[in-house]
Design goal:
Number of strands of chain A: 0
Largest interface: A-B, 35 and 35 residues
Distance between the termini of chain A: 56 Å
Helix content of chain A: over 70%
Mean pLDDT of chain A: 92
Number of helices of chain A: 9
Shape of chain A: elongated
Radius of gyration of chain A: 19 Å
Low-confidence stretches of chain A: none
Strand content of chain A: under 5%
Order of helices and strands of chain A: HHHHHHHHH
Largest sheet of chain A: none
Oligomer: homodimer
Chain lengths: 204, 204
DNA sequence: ATTATAGGCTAATGGTTGTTAGCTGTCAAG
DNA sequence: CTTGACAGCTAACAACCATTAGCCTATAAT
């Protein structure tokens, strides 16, 4: 890997662990294995590194969204795309979303960084809501709209499934046995989807 | 209010907004309306202020625990105290817990500070789990033990009710209309307890 | 009336931080 | 062979930080 990318990754690792303000440029340089001033050959300054991390995350997120078999637009913009989303897709999507924010190093560190910075910086607060707060919650509510009777019920379902997932992010970070937390989340998603599938069968 | 307490409160407000490392002693002093060196007449240093905040929170928490009509010991230590906990008590307890961590200024700021610091400091990580992570989760699992068939089912119930509450802490912080988030949480708790009460009636 | 204490202040210190200036070596292009 | 860009380095700086020393004043105690 080239130096520029190594700086980005090491900086993110440190920002995720201690927070932007608590990390010095020298610490980043140390982690990369160069001296602090050399870092300015690659980035304009500390803030520039930070901005590049956010940009990188946005790029990765855009790529990932294309690969997944789920609607990309909001329900308001394009309601038809949500009509044939079945429970099995939601099951797989939910699990891969949890894995994404825990087991993938870059995303997991980015999530921790957002958690640390979202009170300090209004822009970070926006990103936190978008990626981890009301964003996924609203998205899942859209997904459940076809299944539920009304918008309020869809929102209840979204909260019921995403709430525990969001909580398990915290538990994952504090756990020694990370794998078991992932398992625990998967079995929770399974039991939730199974319950909805059983309810659907009764309807028929 | 005396100066010592004003320092404590202003410091907590700033720590919650920017994080411990990003707040300077001068900023705290400014907020109180004195000069930075005067602050050392009341506290040994910046870390001492921080420690006093944690201590204060522990005191407040101990007081509050005594007032609530819920068991204080763990289920392992004293299983009998959990036997006659009824759903109505859980409903009230859950709502007051949410209100406590959002609408009470000191507690809400302390929660935000923990959220910011729990990656940086192992001691903060412990407190975060104790107050907001696995702590309340395990406690609620204990509470549900009398109602559920086994420990695993009790844990599922705990996760189902506390997960969305924990998520709504984040939503509360990012929301413009805070009151509506509190309402939304209360209605979620209501629907959850109502569902369990209905299930209990069928059993009889 | 004198003293002691509490709580404010200014000035200063030693350490750290982000950043710039300027030097050096490597290596590919002309 | 020369040139020039690239990427590292040391030295230095101005700003800021937590903290200390020491002074002043008002109030409470003796």
């Amino acid at each position: 890997m080239n130096t520029k990318d190594r700086i980005l990754n090491e900086a993110l690792r440190l920002f995720a662990a201690k927070g932007y303000g608590a990390v010095s440029v020298e610490q980043i340089a140390d982690a990369v294995g160069i001296k602090a001033p050399s870092l300015y050959k690659h980035y304009k300054g500390k803030r520039d590194i930070f901005n590049s991390i956010v940009k990188r995350m946005e790029e990765m997120d855009a790529e990932e969204a294309q690969e997944a078999d789920m609607p990309e637009e909001t329900a308001e913009a394009n309601p038809e795309s949500y009509e044939d989303v079945d429970l099995e897709s939601i099951r797989i999507f939910s699990k891969s979303m949890f894995s994404h924010w825990t087991e993938e190093e870059f995303s997991a560190n980015f999530r921790r960084m957002l958690t640390l910075e979202h009170f300090a910086d209004p822009e970070m607060a926006r990103l936190y809501q978008q990626y981890l707060g009301s964003g996924p919650l609203d998205y899942m509510a859209d997904v459940f709209c076809a299944l539920a009777q009304d918008r309020a019920e869809a929102y209840d379902l979204a909260r019921e499934v995403y709430g525990p997932m969001h909580l398990l992010y915290s538990v994952y970070d504090g756990a020694e046995d990370k794998k078991s937390v992932v398992k625990s989340c998967c079995s929770y998603i399974d039991s939730f989807i199974d319950k909805l599938q059983a309810a659907e069968k009764i309807k028929e």
